[in-house]
C-alpha cells in the first residue's frame, strides 16, 4: 500500500508562509485592538463627564456653566451644595475616583523607575495646559482626567447655536475651560492623538486618524462648557464620531 504524506521541505515551506503572513497581519490586529480600546474609553469618559453635569443640574441647579470657583487642595471632598467648582460637580458622579491637587503628584513607572507623570502634547505647547497647570482625577478604571487649575475663573458657557469651529483657541471667556483625558492612565505613550492627514483645527473638517501607534494614541484635549464635555481638537472629534 502506497503511503502519502508531506515531505519535510513542504512542511517547512508551509510554516514559513504562515510565519510571513502572521508577521504582516499581527501588528495590524494589535494596532486595531488598541485603537478600539482607546476609542471606547474616550467615548465612555466623555459620556461620564457630560452626565455628571446633567445630574448636577437636575439636583443642584447648575452645570459646568455655573462653576465660579477653582478646585481647592481638597477638591476631592468639595460638595455641590456648598462649592460651585468642577470638582464639586464631578465628586457626585465619579465613584471610586482619586483626586490630585496637582497632576504632577501622579506617579508612573518608566523603565522600571518611579517618576512624575508627564504628557507629550502639541495642545500643551500651544496653550500652556500641562501637568503643572492642571489638577487631576484618576478613575477606577485607570483613566486620568486633567482639568485646568484656573477652571472656574471664567464662565464656561457657549451661546445656543455656537458652532464648534467658532471657538478654536483659549482666548476670551472660554480661556480656562479645558483639560485632558488620558484613557491609558499612567501607561505609555501619554501622547496626544493627532491627525494622520488633514488639519487638527476645529475650524476644519478634514482630519483623519489612522489606527497606528504614531497617531491613534491615548491623550485627548477636551473642552468643558454648559452640560457637555467635547473634544478640543479635530483629531479627538474624529475619534468621537467614528466607529473604527
Provide a short characterization of the protein structure.
This protein is 30% helix and 15% strand. It has 244 residues and is an alpha+beta fold. It has one domain (8-45, 95-241).
Our count of helices gives 4
Give the CA-based shape.
Answer: elongated
Poorly predicted spans: none
Strand content: 15-25%
What are the secondary-structure elements, in order, as H or E?
Answer: HHEEEHEEEEEH
Q: Report strand order across the widest sheet.
A: 1-4-5-6-7-8
Rg result: 22 Å
Tally of discrete structural domains: 1
Largest sheet properties? 6 strands, antiparallel
Structural class: alpha+beta
Helical fraction equals 25-40%
| Tally of strands | 8
Descriptive account of the structure:
The protein is of the alpha+beta class and 244 residues long. It has one domain. The strands form 2 sheets. It has a 6-stranded antiparallel sheet with strand order 1-4-5-6-7-8. A two-stranded antiparallel sheet has the order 2-3. The model has no long low-confidence stretch (mean pLDDT 88).
Amino acid at each position: 500500500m502506497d503511503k502519502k504524506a508531506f515531505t519535510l521541505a513542504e512542511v517547512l515551506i508551509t510554516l514559513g508562509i504562515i510565519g510571513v503572513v502572521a508577521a504582516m497581519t499581527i501588528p495590524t490586529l494589535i494596532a486595531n485592538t488598541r485603537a478600539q480600546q482607546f476609542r471606547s474609553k474616550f467615548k465612555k469618559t466623555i459620556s461620564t463627564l457630560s452626565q455628571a453635569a446633567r445630574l448636577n443640574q437636575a439636583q443642584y441647579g447648575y452645570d459646568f456653566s455655573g462653576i465660579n470657583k477653582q478646585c481647592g487642595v481638597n477638591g476631592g471632598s468639595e460638595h455641590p451644595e456648598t462649592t460651585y467648582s468642577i470638582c464639586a460637580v464631578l465628586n457626585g458622579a465619579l465613584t471610586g475616583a482619586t483626586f490630585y491637587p496637582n497632576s504632577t503628584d501622579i506617579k508612573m513607572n518608566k523603565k522600571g523607575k518611579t517618576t512624575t507623570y508627564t504628557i507629550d502634547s502639541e495642545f500643551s505647547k500651544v496653550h500652556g495646559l500641562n501637568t503643572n497647570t492642571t489638577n487631576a482625577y484618576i478613575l477606577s478604571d485607570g483613566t486620568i482626567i486633567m482639568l485646568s487649575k484656573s477652571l472656574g475663573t471664567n464662565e464656561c458657557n457657549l451661546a445656543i447655536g455656537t458652532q464648534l469651529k467658532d471657538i478654536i483657541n483659549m482666548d476670551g471667556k472660554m480661556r480656562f475651560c479645558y483639560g485632558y483625558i488620558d484613557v491609558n492612565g499612567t501607561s505609555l505613550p501619554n501622547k496626544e492623538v493627532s491627525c494622520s492627514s488633514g488639519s487638527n483645527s476645529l475650524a476644519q473638517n478634514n482630519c483623519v486618524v489612522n489606527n497606528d501607534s504614531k497617531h491613534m494614541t491615548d491623550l485627548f484635549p477636551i473642552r468643558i462648557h454648559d452640560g457637555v464635555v467635547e473634544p478640543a481638537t479635530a483629531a479627538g472629534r474624529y475619534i468621537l464620531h467614528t466607529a473604527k
